[in-house]
Amino acid sequence: MNSIDLAKLLEQREELDQQIDRVRKDAKLTAIMEVKKLIGLYNLTLQDLGLTKRNGETATKGRGAPRGPVAPRFRDPESGATWSGRGKAPRWIAGKDRNAFLI
Question: Where in this chain does the record put each DNA-binding protein H-NS-like C-terminal domain (predicted)?
């Protein structure tokens, strides 16, 4: 197989990928219209479709409650600065043994 054959095959693959995308997009739109039609016909709800939790909330994951401040776990003996261990490590502890800075 030479490079001309490879180039032709790659071009054909690109054309096929584009054709597949067009067909998939059209099929998706048709499916969405059919589903909407059936939902309206039978007055289906999210719960009927199994798209809610048992307590009636939507199945999408919501944000949790904000977390409060955390007690510091590390202290710089020279400056007295503290760090909770969350987020980026401060310069005074970066790359060092953290056990030496435990409070």
Answer: 64-103
In this structure, the answer to whether residues 50 and 76 fall within a common structural domain is no
CA distance to 2, 65, 71, 85, per residue, from 68 (Å)? 65, 9, 10, 14
pLDDT in tens, 24-64: 999 999 999 999 999 999 999 988 888 876 655 555 666 77
CB distance 79 to 90 below 8 Å: no
Domain check: are 2 and 46 in the same one?
yes
79 burial type by CB count under 10 A (0-12 exposed, 13-18 middle, 19+ buried): exposed
Range of the domain at 102: 70-103
